[in-house]
Write the structure tokens for this entry.
Amino acid sequence: MPGEGIATSAVLAHESELQFELGGPAYRLMQRIGLIQGESRSIGRRVVAFLLITWVPLLLFSLLEGRALGPTPPESFLLDFATYARFFLAIPLIFIAEAVAGEQIREAGLRFVQANLVRPEDLPVVEAAVVRSRQRREAIAPELIMVVVALLGGWFTVETWTRTEHAVSWNSITAPGVTGLSITGMWYHLVAVPILQFFALRWLWRLAIWTMFLFRMSRLELNLVATHPDRAAGLGFLGDAHLSIAIFAVALSCILSAQVAFELYFEGARIESYRVLLATYLVVVEIVCIGPLLMFAPMLARTKRSGVLIYGLFAQSYNREFEDKWVTGKTAATHSALGSADIQALADLGASYDIVRQMKILPFNKGHILLIAIVSALPGLPLVLLIMPVGEILKLLGKLIA
């Protein structure tokens, strides 16, 4: 209908507003100072710039204070695995997550309209949701709060270090009778770590904006089809899009795994003491990556119940007529059963009914859950090398292959 086409075009005209990898106060600031050129993501440029702000000053200060390679591993900045993970892995992965996952979820948001899942009368609601998402993304207050939270976290750490005694490390002062942070430690806690925390919080805010958009979509009466081959009534694209969010989980996994590795290798900690932490982390990752999709469960459950009922009744009626015509002879057949379209239609109807019965009430499957868990756990594989010699690992793999 012409009216529907106009309404759909109006929604798609706001395509640029449903951005999760571009825009926002920090993004505009980076454009203004040249870290981002035009509409480009400028990932490499940003990574180099933030390494120059975070890791390079830490290296220079630690060299001046004699802590680049100190007398013990904990006192050696260059031996701190977690530092490399934070600045050489986590920050680049967060920027990559913005580009990859941001684009994927934007396309998923537009898919609601492009696939005609939204009824014509609800298109203005979708348009309003897109505009609202842009307003939340461009709001200054949330990012200011993130800056404050990141700085307060760093300042709290400084206060804790200066008031209590801690084990000697590369960012502490070792003068007799003095407890506190060195210049390296101050830069680490008040500049480097807050920058990382800000961008992590910023990406979580983008995910929150997307979740609010999904919540609005889940409250609409969508045009779902129980026989859709994705076994999710046409919403299977959401599970595929959310797989890309695992990139952000990998960034945080790098930090966590590196810190655990340092404590295992240099401080003699036992891997058993981290089991609960690592298991909890994987659960949280699953909640963040696919938890928002749970809000579509009631809608999909209704669609499945309705589909089973409708196709069940239709199959019952068709099968009875087929039996009367071709089996019992109650209805006279006008031609031979050989090559009859009735038989093919019966098979197609049975296949459709099976699809409805197998339909999921969630827009993701076990494969999505497993893949997210595996990808998130990959940074932890080096931990295996710390607790099991390479020779034993090869022997174990040999037994599995044999």
